[in-house]
Amino acid sequence: MLEEVDFRKEAVNMEAFQRYIEAMGFDRQAKSPFVYQHCSTKRVLTMERLYGVPLTDLDSIRSLVPDPELTLVTALNVWFGSLISCESFHADVHAGNLWLLRDGRVGFIDFGMFKT
């Protein structure tokens, strides 16, 4: 539980996930927040703000994309791909930690629980 609140580890997890997204060519479909390392510590995590709506808000999702089901499939494909392509994976994926961003990409947030 203490590892989940160590923001240095969370920052490392976020950056690793973003590298995976870029390496696999998912950067047009998914995103994790950029970490401002120079402003982050074990107790403070400073990161890019993502603008969007949680995947639980179907009405808002419909206002941003024509096919909400495709958005969910994209999120699952990106996450499942990380299970086989990465040394560790986002272990707290649920609709509250997945956002549909205003630009149509899926935003992954809350990287405190990452498993190897």
Automatic annotation (TrEMBL):
GO terms for cellular component: plasma membrane; plastoglobule. SUPFAM superfamilies: Protein kinase-like (PK-like). Residues 2-115 form the ABC1 atypical kinase-like domain. This is ABC1 atypical kinase-like domain-containing protein. It comes from Triticum turgidum subsp. durum. The lineage of its organism: Eukaryota, Viridiplantae, Streptophyta, Embryophyta, Tracheophyta.
